[in-house]
């Protein structure tokens, strides 16, 4: 019980909530699109059952992710993916990713659409949340931490999505901070990979001391990498000519 009162636990909870809001904001759009053709009296049921199914599915996926991240080198792969996800957050969006979400006028068909769409879209969330949970430092409380963070953040997404979107539009720094947070988690995840942290295994791999100084330095390096690389790519995208530019 004492672990639930430590600063590390609540910092990790805050990270999970922020990750799920930033990367899971599409969930609210998916739910709205999937349930838009339901009769008004069934929409609330569609939203609730779809959200419940999405939460349950994500908890299962994160459980497997936490298990898999104990395998050497997978944390390094996960860290690379997180860096790219963080960079993508800083890039301008041009395409509508939700145009292929089909609405249904039947309750369970709409619920199935929500759950399947969330499964397809939740890979980035799963990797990021698993990394944040592992960063809390206590393996015994990782799943309670994940479940608590999801239970807090999902209602925020579903019922507060418009406010969150407006805040992000008004304060782009929130998105930048979110991308850097993913870079931070990537850095701390990479140095805790068993291949890097365990001096008795994979001896051909360079080892790093598992001290707080090294952990924070890796986190800062990951955050700055995402910021610098993301801004560079964003500036290049802004300078690129649009397709067909200069055509006669």
From TrEMBL:
It is a multi-pass membrane protein. It is found in: Membrane. It comes from the Bacteria. Signal peptide: none annotated. The chain crosses the membrane at residues 12-35, 47-67, 73-91, 111-133, 145-165, 172-196, 216-234. GO terms for cellular component: membrane. Pfam families: TerC. Keywords: Membrane, Transmembrane, Transmembrane helix. Coiled coil: none annotated. Belongs to the TerC family. NCBIfam families: R_switched_YjbE. This is TerC family protein.
């Amino acid at each position: 019980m004492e672990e639930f009162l430590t600063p590390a636990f609540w910092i990790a909870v805050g990270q999970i909530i922020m990750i799920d809001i930033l990367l899971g904001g599409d969930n609210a759009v998916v739910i709205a699109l999937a349930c838009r053709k339901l009769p008004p009296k069934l929409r609330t049921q569609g939203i609730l059952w779809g959200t419940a199914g999405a939460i349950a599915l994500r908890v299962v996926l994160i459980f497997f992710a936490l298990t898999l991240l104990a395998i050497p080198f997978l944390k390094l792969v996960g860290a690379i993916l997180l860096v790219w996800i963080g960079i993508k957050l800083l890039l301008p969006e041009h395409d509508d990713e939700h145009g292929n979400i089909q609405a249904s006028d039947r309750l369970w068909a709409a619920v199935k659409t929500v759950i399947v769409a969330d499964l397809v879209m939740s890979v980035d969330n799963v990797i990021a949340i698993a990394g944040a949970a592992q960063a809390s430092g206590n393996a015994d409380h990782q799943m309670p931490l994940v479940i608590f963070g999801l239970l807090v953040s999902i209602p925020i997404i579903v019922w507060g999505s418009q406010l969150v979107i407006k805040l992000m539009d008004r304060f782009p720094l929130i998105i930048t901070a979110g991308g850097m947070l993913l870079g931070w988690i990537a850095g701390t995840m990479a140095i805790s990979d068993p291949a890097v942290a365990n001096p008795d295994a994979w001896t051909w791999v360079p080892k790093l001391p598992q001290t707080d100084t090294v952990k924070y330095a890796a986190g800062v390096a990951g955050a700055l990498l995402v910021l610098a690389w993301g801004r560079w790519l964003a500036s290049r995208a802004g300078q690129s000519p649009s397709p067909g530019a200069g055509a006669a």
